[in-house]
Structures are given as C-alpha cells and as structure tokens.
C-alpha cells in the first residue's frame, strides 16, 4: 500500500508533467475554488443519470478513498447532492470525482467534502441501476483502476496508476525543484533598454 501524498501537497499540473502530460481527466473540474483531494480510487460505473451504484459504494468504501464515478459524462441528471455528500462526510471519504453532474453546490461547499464533476444541474438522479463497483472505469477519458492515486485541485483531476505512484511522486518533486530554480532565475531578469 502506498502513502499517498495528502490533498494539496503536489500540484495536479506538475503531476501530469511527471507523467508526460498523460492522466488528466478532461472536463472534470472542482465545484468550488480551493477544493483539493488525494487518495486511492474506489470505482463505480453507472448508467448515465443513475446513482444507485453510488449508494451501494458507500457500503464498501473506506476512510480516505476517493469515490470515482463513470457516469457516462451525462450532464442532465445530478448523481449527487447534499444528502449523498452528507453520507460521504460521515464516512470520511477523501472526495468524489464524477464523470457526470452534481447539484446543491452551495451546500456541498459548506460540507467540505471535495467534489469534482463534469457539470452542474438541478435535476435529480434515477435510482434503478444497473451499476458496477470495484472494477476498471474511465473518467474524462482516463482509465482508472481501484487503488490508483486520484488527486485534484483548482486545475482539475489527475489519475496515477497504482504501480507508478512512487515514481511519479519522486519525479514530481524533482520538477518542483526545477521550477523553483527557474522562478528564481526569472526574478533576476533585467529588462532591455
């Protein structure tokens, strides 16, 4: 088991650079500025607009895991709202990433569970299934397996395959050091007259 860096410890953009700019979930954004998450993925694949699988996931998800949901990119029905996120908060999960929509944004921000989604809509979900939990999915065009490292910040979401976490963390830290050196060099630039 990896020691995943805590939320906000490493910037998503630099982690993506460390993976040759792969692994970024296209179109998935935080629902409010300042939301950060980091942890192992707990995966759900559900019929677009249906959240029965999310409720099933809460029976098995562990503290600190990030609920990652392939909702088919559907923007017409919210997969989560205030009541679902209250449950997530009680279970102390690491956050929620939806390739789908959410609602109750003001209330969600107040609950403090980081939520990243493709869209926002007031329309509620269906609750009939089908769904799959704990298997391979894709979110924002990126493959996600259970246990992969999922991290998010204001720039979006990245997914690091489980077997590459240590290498990507080390590479990211080296890139951050190099960026600090370039920032210092930029401060020393003198304008031409």
UniProtKB/TrEMBL annotation:
Transmembrane annotation, as ranges: none
Matches recorded under Pfam families: RraA-like
The keyword Transferase is annotated on this UniProt entry: yes
EC id: 4.1.1.112, 4.1.3.17
UniProt keyword Hydrolase, yes or no: no
Cofactor(s) this protein requires: a divalent metal cation
Coiled coil segments of this chain: none
Catalyzed chemical reaction(s): 4-hydroxy-4-methyl-2-oxoglutarate = 2 pyruvate; oxaloacetate + H(+) = pyruvate + CO2
Protein keywords: Methyltransferase, Transferase
GO BP, sorted A to Z: methylation
GO molecular function, one term: methyltransferase activity
Signal peptide, first to last residue: none
Matches recorded under SUPFAM superfamilies: RraA-like
PANTHER family: 4-HYDROXY-4-METHYL-2-OXOGLUTARATE ALDOLASE 3-RELATED (PTHR33254:SF4)
Assembly: Homotrimer.
Family: Belongs to the class II aldolase/RraA-like family.
Function: Catalyzes the aldol cleavage of 4-hydroxy-4-methyl-2-oxoglutarate (HMG) into 2 molecules of pyruvate. Also contains a secondary oxaloacetate (OAA) decarboxylase activity due to the common pyruvate enolate transition state formed following C-C bond cleavage in the retro-aldol and decarboxylation reactions.
Protein's name according to its UniProt entry: Putative 4-hydroxy-4-methyl-2-oxoglutarate aldolase
Annotated source species: Streptomyces zingiberis
């Amino acid at each position: 088991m990896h020691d995943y860096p805590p939320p906000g410890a490493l910037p998503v953009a630099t982690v993506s650079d460390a993976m040759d700019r792969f692994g970024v979930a296209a179109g998935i954004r935080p629902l409010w500025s300042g939301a950060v998450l980091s942890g192992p993925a707990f995966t759900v694949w559900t019929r677009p607009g249906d959240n029965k699988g999310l409720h099933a996931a809460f029976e098995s998800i562990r503290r600190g895991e990030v609920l990652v949901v392939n909702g088919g990119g559907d923007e017409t029905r919210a997969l989560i709202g205030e009541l679902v996120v209250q449950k997530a908060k009680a279970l102390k999960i690491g956050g929620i990433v939806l390739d789908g929509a959410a609602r109750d944004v003001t209330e969600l921000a107040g609950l403090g569970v980081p939520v990243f989604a493709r869209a926002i809509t007031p329309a509620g979900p269906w609750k009939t299934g089908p769904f799959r939990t704990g298997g391979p999915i894709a979110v924002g065009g990126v493959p996600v397996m259970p246990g992969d490292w999922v991290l998010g910040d204001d720039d979006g979401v990245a997914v690091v395959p489980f077997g590459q976490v240590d290498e990507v963390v080390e590479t990211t830290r080296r890139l951050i050091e190099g960026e600090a050196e370039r920032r210092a060099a930029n401060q020393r630039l003198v304008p031409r007259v």
